[in-house]
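During the reporting period the student researcher (J.K.) took over the structure-prediction task from the postdoctoral fellow and processed the backlog of single-chain submissions. One of the processed entries is reproduced below for the supervisory committee.
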Amino acid sequence: MNRQPIPVRTGHGAIGRRGSGTGLLALVLGALLLLVTACGGGADKTSRTDNRQPAAGQADTRASRAVVTVAPKNGAKDVATSGALKITADKGKLSQVEVTDSKGNEIDGRITPDGAAWEPSHHLAASTTYKVHALAKDAEGRVSAQDTTFTTLVPKNTFIGEFLPEDGSTVGVGMPVSFRFTRGITHPDAVERAIKVTAEPSVPVEGHWFGNDRLDFRPEKYWAAGTKVTVKVNLDGVEGRPGVYGKQSRTVKFTVGRSQVSTVDAKAHTMKVVRDGKLVRTIPITAGAPATTTYNGQMVISEKLKVTRMNGATVGFGGEYDIKDVPHAMRLSNSGTFIHGNYWASSGTFGSANVSHGCVGLRDRRGAGDSGTPAAWFWNSSLIGDVVVVTNSQDKQIAPDNGLNGWNMSWAEWTK
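J.K. obtained the following structure tokens:
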């Protein structure tokens, strides 16, 4: 049987629909290609924008390149009081640094001229917690911050400085500021830097060490009358010797009163009292006998005693004397030199002979009850820190560290 072939339909038939599907696929693929291209192009633009300065009026939200580093690390304990605190900036400059103790007191310091580091002006206190707040800016002015805390060491061994004059006192023009330390100091520069003595009106004041346990401060010449002196003691945390730290932090103020300088002439047996540049009295005296002469030199009154006991055995004279009621006594040296009242010598001795064991004697009455005697007048007219200068004695000049008598050193010797 002969079969006729089946005709294939064209036009809107099957072949036409297949052609329509191909066109739709092409449209979808084209749209996807455009989308991918658009996303790729957008990503490139965003990356370039991140590396540029923000447009005018827009905030710069990029992170600062500056890096602040604080040593010791945050939370550190037993930190050394000197040399351990270091604050630095990398890829920028420090703009602000605050270091405060637990009481809110800010530690003095300065940012170096290049902005790379901050340096404390002095040591830190011991047994103290400190907070650090530091800011740095990069080249674009963006700020980076660092906040840390740390605690300094607790000393096992400490020292203090016992000092003169007393806070609030009024003293004579020769009064130095004198510290006696309870432990021998092997780091004298660190200790001296921790004590600042200033005067009003201003005058240079320098320190001088006598041995390893005494430090005195004075100006080149006697203080001017009326000078106000401030002593700032910041020894807390200072390592005075290996493992031994200071524990004082205080401010002391005193005032220099009127000027009084009295000059003893051992040969003429007189003392001239000059107050504020004027001679107010000439007093007959007796100085050290030929075998026990009085030191020459500038001596400062360091102690006033209305009545005291003087025993020769305490100053190397054995049992030569023991006077239990010496009136109106004022100390001039650590070795036992005094200017004092004398009631046991005849009145004719004063102004004519030297009979003492090295002291300067003025006529007086027993018991220090007579205000009309020369000794009573001078005692009542004198201040701790007044100067008594002894001349024309057959003895050597007193040692500068024998009492408060550093004035017997030249300024060049004092400051070297």
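The committee noted the following: The longest strand covers residues 143-152.
J.K. will present the remaining backlog at the next meeting.
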